[in-house]
Amino acid sequence: MQKTAFVTGITGQDGPYLAKLLLEKGYRVFGLVPRHSNPNFSNTDYLGVTSGIEFVTGDLTDEGSLLQLIRSTRPDEVYNLAAQSFVGASWDLARLTTEANALGVLYLLNAVKHHQPTAKFYQASTSEMFGNSAEDGGVQTERTPFHPRSPYAISKLYAYWMTVNFRESYGMFTANGILFNHESPIRGREFVTRKIAEGVARIKLGLEESISLGNLDARRDWGFAGDYVEAMWLMLQQSHGDDYLVSTGETHSVREFLDAAFAHVGIADWQGLVKVDPRFKRPAEVNVLQGKSRKAEERLGWKPKVGFEELVRMMVDADLERQRARLGEKAFAV
Ligand code: NAP
Ligand code: F7E
Questions:
Q1: pTM for this entry
Q2: Are 70 and 56 in contact (CB under 8 A)?
Q3: Cβ < 6 A, ligand 2 pocket
């Protein structure tokens, strides 16, 4: 029997990687797209999955749309990846962030409970929920206390507990993936890794003189999105719902990411090419994230495949290719 998945956030970074994985496994994939005058399918195009996905229009903030779509699509698995996911914007967009990331999850859980209670539900939780709190010598585990430091993280904490609560209250199969930062060539352009990859590519090609960034000392546990969607899928193949942390176990600073990205294009001395701009600093920063995903390793058999250096090279190469293609188009137009 062919399985059906309902995936929100299908046009973001993780949605297309997950859709690719599910389509390869023979799933029928419905992808939720919020209404836009000009919808953007560049990420599903990039991974070659646009034609395989059945796109449906709806919004996490509109409960009626979710009730109707869960009733009509009858999914076996629901992956909730949609969110206002940019931490930096969440102070200025606190209400919108809360409505989509917190209440939106309640609406979707309710829709599943009413129309397809046997469906397995995945919630995209985040390492941001830990804030600066850590145990085990600064490393986070599933037992580390939460201390969210942004409206984004607070909204995700509500969704995390609501997901647990539907499991405990109604016996539904729900799972939280507490994912640490994961990146790829289709990462949104305002996130620091992609901003650096694109900036380095443009500097290398003589299209830009510098990159403006905020806190270069922040440290993150950066993995590859293609690896992380496998963990999401594995969580829903278990006999019961549970919560798992997903990370590489390594932490690197923004400065180290810059080192690796510039080194890859043969630039050793990049200090003069990076400007620090306070506009990109946050009212409250999460200084260090480093996760220990032993539970995912032992129970799901999951391990990351792509390491830090390979990830940086993959992202810079993809942006070099994009920038060169754009230059080629311009030359052709002339
Ligand atoms: P992303 O690239 O920002 O994608 C977010 C997606 O959500 C987009 O497709 C967006 O559609 C959609 N969306 C936003 N608001 C919506 C709404 N009200 N209704 C329906 N759809 C809406 O995020 P990502 O990096 O793929 O991350 C996927 C999920 O994992 C997010 O929930 C994020 O918070 C969480 N997460 C990400 C990471 C990470 O490092 N990437 C780590 C931990 C957790 P439009 O583009 O059309 O607006
Ligand atoms: O920032 C610092 C910034 O915006 C990483 C989301 O997917 O992962 C992501 O959240 C670090 C922060 O990601 C700039 O202050 C310095 O310390 O790439 P980011 P994030 O905030 O860690 C988590 C797990 C999620 O759940 C989120 O959805 O880099 N930084 N200079 C900068 N960050 C940005 N964006 N821009 C800068 O210029």
A1: 0.98
A2: no
A3: 85, 87-88, 126-128, 180-181, 190-193, 195, 213-215, 218, 220, 254, 280, 282, 285
